Amino acid sequence: MMFTACSSNNDDPTPSPSEKYVWSEDGGFKACDHVLFTDNGQEAPKGNVIGNGDQNFVFKGNQSLERGTYLLKGWVYVADGATLTIPAGTVIKGDKDTKAALIVEPGGKLIANGTATDPIVFTSEQAAGSRRPGDWGGLIICGKAPNNNGVLAQQIEGGPRTKHGGTDANDNSGSLQYVRIEFAGYPFKKDQEINGLTLGSVGAGTTIDHVQVSYSNDDSFEWFGGTVNCKHLIAFHGWDDDFDTDNGFSGKVQYGLSVRDSRIADASQSNGFESDNNASGSTAEPYTTATFSNITFLGPKTFDASFTNDKTYINGGGINPENGSSTGLFQAAMHIRRNSRLNVNNTLAIGWPIGLILDNEKGNTQGAATNGQMKLNGITFVGMDIVGSDFNKVYKDELYDYTTKTTDATKPSFTSNFFQLAANQNTVVGNWMAQTWNGIASILAISKQYPGIGAFPDGQDWTAGWANFDPQNAQY
Ligand SMILES: [Ca+2]
Ligand SMILES: [Ca+2]
Ligand SMILES: [Ca+2]
């Protein structure tokens, strides 16, 4: 690629007198048709700060950034009708003081198309070696596709103002391709965290593929309702859950990789999948019916023979941000609960304390499984301590009776029985020898042992060129 010195230079903060910034007000916040500023909030068409420095700033224009390095300050909303375009090769660092986040509101669009050799990176502003989970907020995309909470009725998690949801299953919030999101996930309040990538009612007209979320301080990916289909996702060394689905998400996700750091798990228990219909487990429709195919979950025992699931061992691995997030235990590769009807196919999970929990504490996920309203097929569990448990935070493969609230230790769990029904074509492999971590090479070597399933069913490395399995030491 060729570019001239003047067109690629975003270091010159001198405003061009021909570019007039048009200001307005939106919901009590300053709003503008331009998104770039100087470090002290001055208008600057070629500035290198996104947002004017206010905690909440509303972007209402249609602007394409030049390739470069930017600092994101505050919560920058891409409002209804606005479009922000970010070119390949651009690096956006999130400001720590303002817990910076980029929030695409329903009707707004983010076009962030990196390439396999030139990804777009959203990352910490801290120097190599001193980055921590939660250094900034994260990326939030909201749309007008259905959720089970109503039209523009669902408040997005984590603090920002945005409400999402609608009736357009094909709604288009833009495009995310070859994007990394690193060290995001600020804990705004307990159980109110910004995830690495949060998708609220995002519609199927949106393109999402080749996205890696690394060292998020909450979930790596979380979907609240919506219909968007996603391909080639990586959840790397996340704090809480890897792929969290809630509020009627019904999209299809294919090719997903999760790799855990054996010293990092959340106080809420970390799972690979965490899936709810909603918080109360009600019958609100649409149900959470997402389908995940070809996912690989490399749990805490995969690369660590000495892993111990206790609070002494799980200490944050030397990068605990001490910011209010707290460590806890690992739980299940798949925790499906609260009336969720999650579907999973052709998936590989290795080295978790528990393979699957079908949790009937609220709602009737077990009934949905029995009735064929959710399907868990073609899944291989390797080296789990136990295949199944029926209850959150119970690490025993024993039948739990939800009416009498008692356990029958003489019988295996409902979950374990269901998983191993012949018709479901699932496989349980008992033993696992921890492997040496060597980045993608070690992941591909493991994948080769289980051909036809998981994130790399044919061995093809779709992470090459754009993914990064050591973002702590990357130079930005
Ligand atoms: Ca979350
Ligand atoms: Ca979660
Ligand atoms: Ca959790």
Q: What is the residue-mean pLDDT, rounded to a whole number?
A: 95
Instruction: Name every ligand kind in the structure.
Output: calcium ion
Count the domains: 1
Distance, first to last CA: 20 Å
- The Cα radius of gyration reads 22 Å
Compute the number of strand runs. 35
Protein name: T9SS C-terminal target domain-containing protein
Region (Disordered): 1-20
Strand-helix topology:
Layout: H1 5-8, E1 23-26, E2 29-32, E3 36-37, E4 49-50, E5 56-59, E6 62-64, E7 69-72, E8 75-78, E9 83-86, E10 91-94, E11 101-104, E12 109-113, E13 120-124, E14 138-142, E15 154-155, E16 163-164, E17 174-182, E18 187-189, E19 192-193, E20 197-200, E21 207-214, E22 221-224, E23 230-236, E24 243-246, E25 252-259, E26 273-275, E27 291-298, E28 332-337, E29 343-350, E30 354-359, H2 365-370, E31 376-382, E32 386-389, E33 399-401, E34 406-408, H3 414-419, E35 427-429, H4 439-448
Parallel strand pairs: 2-5, 4-7, 5-8, 6-9, 7-10, 8-11, 9-12, 10-13, 11-14, 12-17, 13-17, 14-20, 17-21, 20-22, 21-23, 22-24, 23-25, 24-26, 25-27, 26-28, 27-29, 28-30, 29-31, 30-32, 31-35
Antiparallel strand pairs: 1-2, 3-4, 15-16, 18-19, 33-34
This protein binds calcium ion (3 copies).
List keywords for this structure.
476 residues; mainly beta; 16-stranded mixed beta sheet; 13-stranded mixed beta sheet; 5% helix; globular; disordered N terminus; binds calcium ion
